[in-house]
Amino acid sequence: MGLINFCTQCGSEIKQEIPQGDDRERDVCSKCGFIHYFNPRLVVGTIPIWEDRILLVRRAIEPCYGKWTLPAGYLENGESVLDGALRETREEAHARIENLKSFALFNMTQINQIYYMFYGQLSDTDFKAGSESLEVKLVREKDIPWDDIAFKVIRITLERFFEDRSKGSFDYHMEDIFFERSIKYRS
Amino acid sequence: MGLINFCTQCGSEIKQEIPQGDDRERDVCSKCGFIHYFNPRLVVGTIPIWEDRILLVRRAIEPCYGKWTLPAGYLENGESVLDGALRETREEAHARIENLKSFALFNMTQINQIYYMFYGQLSDTDFKAGSESLEVKLVREKDIPWDDIAFKVIRITLERFFEDRSKGSFDYHMEDIFFERSIKYRS
């Protein structure tokens, strides 16, 4: 079972085969022979900090409509991971952040996503909900809505952040995150 | 000018348009409306270390046939960045490495690639050229063939590594790398 049905170059049907010199099945055009490669996508995001609070965003879109998350989204072609993270923070929370540092890389191999999270200081508190957000607010650790966090990767990001903050030093984390039930995904 | 000609789902022609709620042109199917997203690809690799030497690989494929590089290649679906880096090291140099640490992330926005490099200790010296390599060897800093390194990103990786080693501590680096002339690329 391939990921696509038709060739992106000539529109003919796709077959699955192992190209010469390769070691796994690819989606290959039955007519022109073009080989289609699909690779994990990078999701980039931030933990925006203001004094003892961090900025959370309430989702206005599915999946997880109404749940809380951090600003994050797919890295676009032509962007650095830092620029992508800043853009997502601007789009989802109209927020500007400074002095960004790498915080964590999470491998989510079941859905072919790699999350790359930064933390940084908000430049000001002049933020507001973007078009994909219902609400944006600054939250203290004791007020984090743990039962209403949108995604496991965001919950773990927040846990690691508060763990590091409580010990007074921030590490760079790398972890694999798995779902209990595997999720169907088309790349 | 889009990246593809035909829809991967139904095989109809592609048009470029900005989908509702989006802010940039995508390759959208003129018939079924399927939106095709293209994102940067991750390249993962390693600096394999043996005492005061590191392992270099001489390329048996284009581009840069005959030039020297480090084991590295595209991250595959279903892989963590660490597993991908270990696989590339095994495939290109039949080498096993241990105790890997994150070394650098390089943004190459002109070609929509993100390089993620580790360093680690070779488990043994029982390595040999893989099918995409002409030759594999351990090299001291003074013997690095600087004029015959395959890619700018690999040259910079090596420079940062030896700089860090000479000061006795390894940082985690993040840099943007640009080519002098822009390179055409189809994602």
| Tally of distinct domains of chain A | 2
Largest interface: A-B, 41 and 41 residues
* Helical percentage of chain A: 10-25%
Largest sheet properties of chain A: 8 strands, mixed
Assign the structural class of chain A, choosing from mainly alpha, mainly beta, alpha/beta, alpha+beta, or little secondary structure: alpha+beta
CATH architecture of the largest domain in chain A: Alpha-Beta Complex
Per CATH, the superfamily of the largest domain in chain A is: Nucleoside Triphosphate Pyrophosphohydrolase
What is the terminal-to-terminal distance of chain A? 13 Å
Oligomer: homodimer
CATH names the topology of the largest domain in chain A as Nucleoside Triphosphate Pyrophosphohydrolase
**Mind telling me the C-alpha Rg of chain A?**
19 Å
At the first level of CATH, what is the class of the largest domain in chain A?
Alpha Beta
Low-pLDDT windows of residues of chain A: 182-187
Q: Count of DSSP helices of chain A?
A: 2
**Strand residue content of chain A:** 35-45%
Beta strands of chain A, count: 11
What form of chain A results from the Cα inertia axes? elongated
* Secondary-structure element string of chain A: EEEEEEEHEEEHE
Mean pLDDT of chain A: 94
